[in-house]
Amino acid sequence: MPVLSFPTLSAPSNKLLLEQRLKYIFQSKNFTQKTLSEVKFDENWGFYGDLSSRLNQLNLSLNASVDYLWASRGGYGVSDLLGKIELKNHENTIFIGFSDFTSLMSARYAECGGLSWHASMPGGAFWYDDELLDDFLLQLESSEPSGEVLIEENIEEPIKGKVYGGCFSVLTNLIGTPYFPKSLDKHILILEDIEEHPARLMRYWRQWENSGVLQGVSAVVFGRLVYKDPAYREYHDIFIQFLKKNSHVPIYTSNEIGHIHNNKPFLIGADAVLEENKLKFSAVL
């Protein structure tokens, strides 16, 4: 019976949504929940909770050897926790989350190669229809998790690699730190983001190129780069087309991943293959 915890490591959750969604998860499956103490939030600085209480939630989850540490939501502040815990001592606990939580998943992968699900969080704005959520919960019960993501382009020859990725801006800020992998050789990268000006996206990409971290990368898949401003969406297409034309790394896209409803889960650290119009991944726990 898998044990799950839902720590608050960045911004406060929508409590009503969190309660409703956790109720569905635990009614649907034979999961057990590790109860955590409340995180304190400063009324004047409510972007995220105080460091000591967030770190306490992280430690409680990891020291209890939960099977899945599922961040309650994203926001800001997870990078505060980097370097304050030995993640390699907890490689059997699988992390779940995305957005700001990307930094902790990357740090874990860099430190010990631990698996993490890039997936939506129950206390946040983006969630799942019941059918997709049920499919994901089945993967959490499996000792051989797998999945697939639709790719917009047709891939003529299969491309293999380890999966790594997450929020583009968060990962860019980790380049050059111990919390970013030393090598992405033979990796398939999956990158997505929200409300980042197209000019900043290009600046991020130049950082990846100029730092050399793209050396040996098998392919890059861009998920959704979400904008409220319709004008930015046009520049998004220009950005992707520019990369396809000028990058030495094959560039593909998927509309199923990102800060969106039904954000399709994928497994960081899994073995994967890009073929035809799909990314297929699998791992053995």
Furnish the topology, listing elements before pairings.
Elements (H helix, E strand, L loop, with lengths): L2 E3 L9 H14 L3 E2 L17 H13 L4 E3 L23 E4 L4 H11 L3 E3 L11 H11 L5 E22 H5 L14 E8 L3 H14 L7 E8 L3 H17 L4 E3 L12 E3 L2 E12 L3
Parallel strand pairs: 1-2, 1-3, 3-4, 4-5, 6-7, 7-8, 8-9
Antiparallel strand pairs: 5-10, 6-11
Question: How does this structure look, described?
Answer:
The protein has 285 residues and is α/β, with parallel strands linked by helices. The chain folds into two domains: 3-140, Murein tetrapeptidase LD-carboxypeptidase, N-terminal domain (Rossmann fold, 3-Layer(aba) Sandwich); 146-282, 3-Layer(bba) Sandwich (Glucose Oxidase, domain 1). It is 30% helix and 25% strand. It has helices at residues 15-28, 51-63, 102-112, 130-140, 168-172, 198-211, 230-246; strands at 3-5, 32-33, 68-70, 94-97, 116-118, 146-167, 187-194, 219-226, 251-253, 266-268, 271-282. The chain has a six-stranded mixed sheet with strand order 2-1-3-4-5-10, covered by helices on one side. The protein has a five-stranded mixed sheet with strand order 9-8-7-6-11. Helix 7 links the parallel strand 8 and strand 9. The relative contact order is 0.15. The mean pLDDT is 92.
What low-confidence regions span 5 or more consecutive residues with pLDDT below 50? none
Helix fraction, binned, reads: 25-40%
End-to-end distance, in Å?
15 Å
Strand order of the largest sheet: 2-1-3-4-5-10
Largest sheet: 6 strands, mixed
How many domains comprise the coordinates?
Answer: 2
The number of distinct β-strands equals 11
**Mean pLDDT, rounded to whole units?**
92
Basic shape: globular
Instruction: Provide the CATH top-level class of the largest domain.
Output: Alpha Beta
Q: How many helices in DSSP terms?
A: 7
Order of helices and strands: EHEHEEHEHEHEHEHEEE
CATH architecture level-2 label of the largest domain: 3-Layer(aba) Sandwich
